[in-house]
Design brief:
With 464 residues, the protein is α+β, with helices and mostly antiparallel strands. 42% of the residues lie in helices and 19% in strands. Helix 7 packs across helix 12 and helix 8 packs across helix 14. A four-stranded antiparallel beta sheet has the order 2-1-3-14, with no helix packed on it. Strands 6-8-7-15 form a four-stranded antiparallel beta sheet. It has a three-stranded antiparallel beta sheet with strand order 9-12-13. It has three domains: 223 residues, DNA primase, PRIM domain, CATH 3.90.920; 135 residues, no CATH class; 49 residues, no CATH class.
C-alpha cells in the first residue's frame, strides 16, 4: 500500500467518522482499546493499552487518529490503560464468539457465498445460545465484523466471571467436541426367559435419548439429533431410490472415515496396496494385525469395497421406519429402535453432530477469541481496514434481514480510478457489492468508490 493510497483511504475513513454517530460499547471506560493505523500498514502493529474516560474523548481520538482498525477488549478492568495485563486488574469479560468464513468446512465460490455460509453458521450458534443456554435476546448482540463473518457478544452477569477453561467448555458444547452416542443415549435393556430347553431374550426397554427420559419433548443435543433422524428418514423416503442409495453411501463412508482417522497413514497406504495386489481380505487383516472390521472400513472409505448391495438392504430398513407413523412418533419421543440397519443408527447420529455443530475455527471454534478472557474485538460502527465496510451491530431480528454486501457498504457510487496490482488473485478479480458485480484486470480500472476502496483495503490495488 503506497503513500497516495494510504492518504486517500485515511481521508475517506475520516469523512465517515466525522459524519457518523459513534456509539460507545457497554461500559467502555472499563475496557482496554487498541488501534492499527494506516501509517504502518501493511504491517500489523497494534497500539493497545489505551483507555478513555468519556465518550467525547474516545470519539475525538478516533476522528483525529483515523485508524484503519478499531478494537476494544471483551474484558472489563479496574485500570484498563495500565501497561501490563497484571496491572489492569481483570474484573470480568463478555462471552465472545467469532464466526469467520475461513473456518467453515464448505468451500465458497464467491465472497457473497462465503458470507451466506457464515450467516447460516451464526444462526446455528444463536439457536444454541437461546435454546440450550437460555440466554435472552436482550443480552445478545450480533456484530457483522466488516470482513468475513460475525461476532456474538453475550453480556449476562452469569458469564461475566467465567474463566478460560469454563468458556472452553461452552465452545466444546456448541462444537459437539468429544460428543459420542454413549453420552447421549441410555442403552436398551433385555429380559431373558427360561423356556426349558432354551433361554429367550426379549427387548424390555429400547435405546432412549437421555434428555427425553422424563417424558418431555427433549432438549439440547438430544433434541437436535431426534429432529435430524426424522428429517433424514423423511428425506430418503420422499425421494427416489438412486438418491437414497447415494445419500446412504455418503453417510456410511463419512462415518467409517471417522472410525479410522487415528490409524497411521502408512498403515492405510499399506492396506490399500495389499488390496490392489489382490491379497485376500482376511490375509490383509492377519498380516497387518488389525481387526477385519477396521480393514474393511479402510477399503470402504477408499472406494475399494463395494457396499452398494449392503446399502440397498439398509435403505429398505430405514424406509420401513420412515413410512411408519408409529416409528416416527417413537423417535420424536426420544425412543430409538433401528433393528434392521445395525451401525447405520450411529452413522446418522455422527452426521447429525457434524451438521448441527458450530464451526468457529480451531477444532470447531476460534478458541483464542472465546476462551481468551483478555481478547480485543472490533468496535461496532467502526470501519474494517481490510475491506472498507462498516462493523455493524445487529439485533436478532435485524440480523435475519441483514445483507452485508449492501447494508455494510458506506462509501459512494461515484467512479474513481485504481491500479490493480499483479499478480491478481482469483478472489480479488470480481467484486460483488450493492447488488452489482464488477470484474477487474491488472492495470488501470474505473470502479464505483465503494468497490475501489474494497480492493485498495485488500491490498489488491493502489489509488491511481
Amino acid at each position: 500500500m503506497n503513500f497516495r493510497t494510504k492518504n486517500y483511504l485515511r481521508k475517506r475513513f475520516q469523512d465517515y467518522y466525522n459524519n457518523s454517530d459513534l456509539t460507545m460499547p457497554h461500559d467502555f471506560i472499563r475496557r482496554e482499546w487498541g488501534f492499527i493505523l494506516f501509517d504502518q500498514m501493511p504491517e500489523i502493529v497494534m497500539r493497545r493499552h489505551k483507555a478513555f474516560s468519556s465518550a467525547g474523548e474516545a470519539v475525538e481520538y478516533i476522528r483525529g487518529m483515523v485508524p484503519a482498525h478499531v478494537y476494544h477488549s471483551a474484558a472489563y478492568y479496574e485500570y484498563p490503560g495500565a501497561g501490563t495485563m497484571k496491572e489492569k486488574k481483570w474484573q470480568g469479560a463478555d462471552l465472545i464468539f467469532d464466526l469467520d468464513a475461513d473456518h467453515l468446512p464448505q468451500k465458497a465460490r464467491s465472497y457473497a457465498e462465503m458470507l451466506a455460509n457464515v450467516k447460516a453458521e451464526t444462526m446455528k450458534l444463536l439457536d444454541f445460545l437461546l435454546d440450550d443456554f437460555g440466554f435472552t435476546e436482550d443480552v445478545i448482540s450480533i456484530v457483522f465484523s466488516g470482513g468475513r463473518g460475525y461476532h456474538i457478544h453475550v453480556r449476562d452477569p452469569k458469564v461475566l466471571l467465567l474463566e478460560s477453561a469454563e468458556r472452553r467448555e461452552i465452545v466444546d458444547y456448541v462444537g459437539g467436541t468429544g460428543l459420542k452416542t454413549e453420552f447421549l443415549f441410555k442403552s436398551e435393556k433385555h429380559k431373558v426367559y427360561d423356556t426349558g430347553k432354551f433361554k429367550k431374550k426379549e427387548l424390555d426397554t429400547p435405546r432412549r435419548i437421555i434428555s427425553f427420559e422424563d417424558g418431555g419433548e427433549g432438549f439440547g443435543w438430544g433434541k437436535r439429533i431426534s429432529n435430524y433422524i426424522i428429517h433424514f428418514l423423511k428425506d430418503i423416503s420422499n425421494n427416489d431410490e438412486v438418491y437414497g442409495i447415494n445419500k446412504t453411501i455418503h453417510l456410511i463412508k463419512n462415518y467409517k472415515k471417522s472410525q479410522i482417522q487415528k490409524i497411521p497413514d502408512n498403515i492405510v497406504k499399506r492396506i490399500i496396496q495389499m488390496q490392489k495386489d489382490n491379497m485376500g481380505f482376511e490375509q490383509i487383516a492377519n498380516e497387518i494385525g488389525m481387526p477385519k472390521e477396521k480393514v474393511r472400513d479402510i477399503l470402504i472409505v477408499n472406494d475399494l469395497w463395494d457396499i452398494r448391495r449392503e446399502t440397498i438392504g439398509k435403505l429398505k430398513g430405514m424406509k420401513k421406519i420412515a413410512q411408519s407413523a408409529e416409528g416416527l412418533e417413537m423417535i420424536e419421543k426420544g425412543i430409538i429402535d433401528f433393528p434392521y440397519v445395525t451401525y447405520m443408527f450411529d452413522a446418522i447420529v455422527y452426521d447429525a453432530i457434524e451438521e448441527n455443530s458450530v464451526h468457529l475455527g480451531g477444532s470447531h471454534t476460534d478458541e483464542p477469541v472465546t476462551a481468551d478472557i483478555k481478547r480485543l474485538i472490533r468496535m461496532p460502527l467502526s470501519l474494517h481496514g481490510g475491506s472498507g465496510m462498516k462493523v455493524v451491530p445487529l439485533t436478532i431480528p435485524e440480523f435475519k434481514k441483514f445483507e452485508p454486501l449492501k447494508d455494510a457498504v458506506v462509501f459512494e457510487d461515484r467512479e474513481i480510478e485504481i491500479d490493480v496490482l499483479p499478480p491478481l488473485k482469483p478472489q480479488n478479480s470480481k467484486v460483488e457489492m450493492k447488488g452489482k458485480s464488477f470484474t477487474v484486470s491488472e492495470g488501470i480500472n474505473t470502479l464505483p468508490e465503494y468497490a475501489a476502496i474494497y480492493l485498495m483495503c485488500r491490498g489488491a490495488a493502489e489509488y491511481a
